[in-house]
Design a protein that fits this description.
The protein has nine helices and 32 strands. It has 514 residues and is an alpha+beta fold. α4 packs parallel to α5. The protein starts with a strand and ends in a 5-residue tail after the last strand. The mean pLDDT is 95.
């Protein structure tokens, strides 16, 4: 998880290439303050740091040298000093014709295919990746970025341009073969400790990349009135849903940026829907807003904090072959021998049955059979609403929820326990899969350690298994003044203000049978 200085580009209200040292350092301070305590470790600098596409030196007017270090090497050290991991954007498979490299090596460039002319900018050369000298230069570039400057997250963009090369120096090598061999050379140079993120061209980097952005650029609007090439939440989501299965089987999926900005009148419900979709895929969480803007908007941060750190498992869209925009996701969560389901329900507005008719924006009722989740429908289950912090009990084998248009619901679905057990904490959306440790019930007392953030208020919810809550304690945490604990409809809760990065909580219940 991390941020992205590009932010959707300047045209949509992001920074684009308009970055400099002062801006990056201000955002680094905000990132370390607001997100590092929640588990966000990467800090990435996107396009705009370089002097020219192809030369890949620091733009000194934006990032001056310090202490004998080139600007971007110095910035990487500042990122590390804050306890974060530095990342950088680069596009090595394109070289602008005005660059010093282009002028120095006129024999390094491949021709652009007839088909590629529709994609490759006219002011760009394509490096001939069948030429050993070219690949050696690329290897040297990545050695500089990682081994000399210290960047440990590489976002490699526009690499697919190389697939449009033709008339390569080596006539026995196809563009795809040359592309893959160059990727492997990069992987060898940067080593296993550097996270290697590729963009597009998915199949050819399956065995090389650590992650891949599986979508077009997301943009900060809902997207009903946009084409697939203009992206937005809905078009991006449609792609994510159809590539969910790549996640953790081949690499870590990158579904692209989260947005909240006001420019396009996004509602809280809409941003929550997209944030939820990203969380349920268990892939990269990447912020499209600046850290400084997020610092000024705690209501935006409130949607990100509960999905950090990422729970590293992808849910599955159950209706992938029924709806153009799937409405029901099932994620199997587990911890220390305990297992449950995280059910994501969505109302994407206008939607289409595959091969059938369109549905309008009207309020929609979604029904999920517990049997479709592999559960015994004869048993009783708790359905805990992770965003609303409310709950219901399911006795008849079906979950029925009514959703307004452009909204989502996340339900933690757990079988009714035979002894008190934690079912949710406000620290994380996944119902205790990430933040709860060493949970045990003994001598009528439920005890667990919760990952927390000092100074923040958290609530732990436990199914009480029919027992009355008698006493609570938050160990290193101070109980809130009002509403610190309570119980009702089969659930007990404890609210506290954390004083440390971990808080041990205890909840004492009456003995079995009263």
């Amino acid at each position: 998880s991390g941020g992205n200085s590009w932010g959707g580009g300047g045209g949509s209200g992001g920074l684009g290439t308009n970055i400099d040292e002062a801006l990056i350092l201000a955002n680094l301070d905000a990132a370390a303050t607001d997100f590092l305590p929640w588990g966000m470790k990467y800090f990435m600098i996107d396009d705009g740091w370089e002097d020219n596409i192809g030369d890949w030196n620091t733009a000194k007017q934006r990032f001056p040298d310090h202490d004998g270090l080139e600007g971007m090497a110095w910035v990487a050290k500042q990122i590390e000093s804050k306890g974060m991991i530095p990342g950088i954007w680069v596009a090595p498979f394109e070289v602008v014709k005005t660059s010093a490299l282009a002028k120095a090596h006129p024999d390094w460039w491949a021709d652009v295919s007839v088909f590629g002319a529709a994609f490759v900018p006219k002011d760009v050369f394509l490096p001939d990746l069948s030429n050993p000298e070219v690949v050696d230069w690329i290897a040297g570039l990545f050695h500089k970025l990682t081994k000399e400057w210290g960047y440990r997250w590489i976002k490699m963009d526009f690499s697919y341009y190389a697939l449009f090369a033709t008339n390569l120096q080596d006539p026995d090598v196809t563009p795809s073969q040359a592309y893959h061999a160059a990727l492997q050379r990069i992987r060898d140079v940067i080593g296993p400790e550097t996270f290697f993120l590729t963009i597009a061209a998915t199949g050819l980097s399956y065995d090389v990349a650590d992650g891949n952005r599986i979508t077009l650029d997301n943009e900060p609007w809902w997207g009903d009135d946009k084409t697939i090439f203009e992206a937005g939440f809905k078009p991006t989501y449609a792609t994510v849903a159809r590539r969910y299965y790549l996640n953790h089987n081949l690499w870590i999926n990158h579904p692209d940026l989260l947005f909240w900005r006001d420019k396009y009148d996004l509602t809280t419900a809409e941003t929550r829907a997209w944030t939820t979709a990203v969380a349920l895929t268990g892939g990269i969480v990447k912020l499209g807003e600046t850290y400084t803007d997020l610092h000024a908007h705690p209501e935006w941060r409130a949607q990100v904090e509960p999905i950090l750190p990422v729970y590293p498992r992808s849910g599955r869209p159950l209706d992938l072959f029924d709806h153009e925009f799937p409405e029901v996701w099932d994620l199997h969560a587990e911890r220390d021998g305990r297992a449950w389901h995280v059910l994501g329900l969505f109302h994407w507005g206008r939607n289409r049955d595959i091969g059938g008719s369109w549905h309008d924006e009207a309020t929609r009722t979604v029904t999920v059979d517990l049997a479709d989740l592999g559960l015994d429908a004869t048993k009783r289950f708790l359905a805990f609403d992770a965003w609303q912090r409310t709950w219901t009990w399911v006795d008849e084998g079906k979950i029925v929820e009514t959703l307004d248009s452009h909204s989502t619901r996340v339900l933690i679905v757990r079988e009714e326990p035979t002894a008190p057990a934690i079912v949710f904490t406000t620290r994380h959306l996944m119902g205790g899969a990430v933040e709860v440790h060493d949970e045990a019930f003994a001598s009528d007392t439920l005890k667990a350690t919760i990952d927390t953030v000092p100074g923040r208020v958290f609530t732990v919810f436990a199914a009480n298994a029919g027992r009355e809550l008698l006493q609570v304690d938050a160990g290193s945490g101070a109980l809130a003044d009002t509403g610190a604990s309570g119980q009702g409809d089969g659930v007990a809760w404890l609210t506290f203000t954390a004083k440390a990065a971990a808080t041990t909580v205890t909840m004492a219940f009456e003995p079995a049978g009263g």
